[in-house]
Amino acid sequence: MSTADWLLMFHITAAFLFVGGSVAAGVLNVLAVRAERPSEAATMLRLIKALLPVIFVGVGGTLLFGIWLWHELHFSLGAAWIWISLALWVVANALGGVGGRHQERSRELAERLAGEGDAPSDELRALLRDPTGAAISYAAGAATLAILVLMIWKPGS
Amino acid sequence: MITVLAYSRGFWPLFLHVLGAMTLFGVVLAAFVLAIAGLPRATFTSLLVALPAWAVTLACAFWIESDEGLDNSNATWIGIGHAVLEPGLIVLLGALGTAWWWRRSGKTVAARISMGLSGVYLLLLCLAWLAMSGKWGS
User: Fold this and answer.
1) pLDDT digits over A62-97, tens only?
2) CA distances in angstroms from A61 to A64, A69, A91, B98, B111, listed in the order given
3) How many helical (H) and strand (E) elements, i.e. helices and strands, does chain B have?
4) pTM for the full model?
């Protein structure tokens, strides 16, 4: 295997960790939203936190091996699809960070309510189903999907 | 327009194959952590979602092979991909079946088997994407 083959293998592995980890976090978030008791929602949101290292390795690896591949495969410095992908990578991570802080607030509330009798709460339900929080998560997912489209399509290369 | 359509014929099967595989990895990863957390119902639901992702991944693999004339290829990386997706389905169905048994009975042994099989399936998927992205044996 050539250096480029190795780099591509690590780049794709990182992409699987990034996208797969995000999918897993999305599944757990849906389960948290559908949970009846605060303790159940808190458990799901804690599990999302446990998945963050997987996502972070993927996020860092896609950038590191992606830029290395850019140099190794001699793609043009003006390749628009790479620059757009980099911009989308920044957007996806910024939105993911904002969405993560929203989930963290939900987790703290869910844990407090779980310790105070674990009764279903309208306040927690409203926070978990907050349309702004959901829109931010969907936008982060859409940006990630757009990166995948560009990486496979490679328009202009 | 004709160029876009002609190009998209090659784009869609690969895009859907990769997206299906990443989704499959993600939902099995979710099932694995849910099994570790001792949540049978959520583990079962997550593994159930893996089945359509598996079907999209496999169908698009056949689509790519047909488009690119790889139907009769003996390349190692294609063989590993097929082995993980086709006989590997037994592992995924085993994890799903034992998650259902765990959900019904609450037995610890069912939980352990489901968690173990989910973990094995994650490793198989990892092997498949390494082989396919590195084009092993080509």
Assistant:
1) 999 999 999 999 888 888 999 999 999 999 999 999
2) 5, 12, 17, 35, 33
3) 5, 0
4) 0.94
Collapsed DSSP state (helix, strand, coil) of residue B138: coil
Residue A15 · residue A58 · CB < 8 Å: yes
Helix ranges (H only) for B37-87 are 40-67, 76-85
Task: Report how far residue B26's alpha carbon sits from residue A20's, in angstroms, rounded to the nearest whole number.
Answer: 4
Asked if A47's CB is within 8 angstroms of B37's CB, the reply is yes
B25: contact with A, CB 8 A cutoff: yes
Which of A15, A27, A51 lies closest to B27 in CB terms? A27
CA gap A148, A155 in Å, rounded = 12
Provide the ipTM: 0.94
Local confidence pLDDT in tens for the 138 residues of chain B: 445 545 556 799 999 999 999 999 999 999 999 999 999 999 999 999 999 999 999 999 999 999 888 888 888 999 999 999 999 999 999 999 999 999 999 999 999 999 999 999 999 999 999 999 998 887
Q: Is B134 left (phi over 0), alpha (psi -120 to 50) or beta?
A: alpha
**Residue A44, burial from CB neighbour count under 10 angstroms (0-12, 13-18, 19+):** buried
Instruction: Find out whether B134 and B78 touch, Cβ atoms under 8 Å.
Output: no
For residues B33 and A28, what is the distance between their CA atoms, to the nearest angstrom? 10
Specify the pLDDT at position B138: 73
Residue to test with chain B: of A1, A3, A19, A23, most B Cβ within 10 A? A23
* Cβ distance of B22 and A23 shorter than 8 Å: yes
How far is the alpha carbon of B25 from chain A, nearest alpha carbon, in Å? 6
Question: B122 to chain A nearest CA, in Å?
Answer: 11
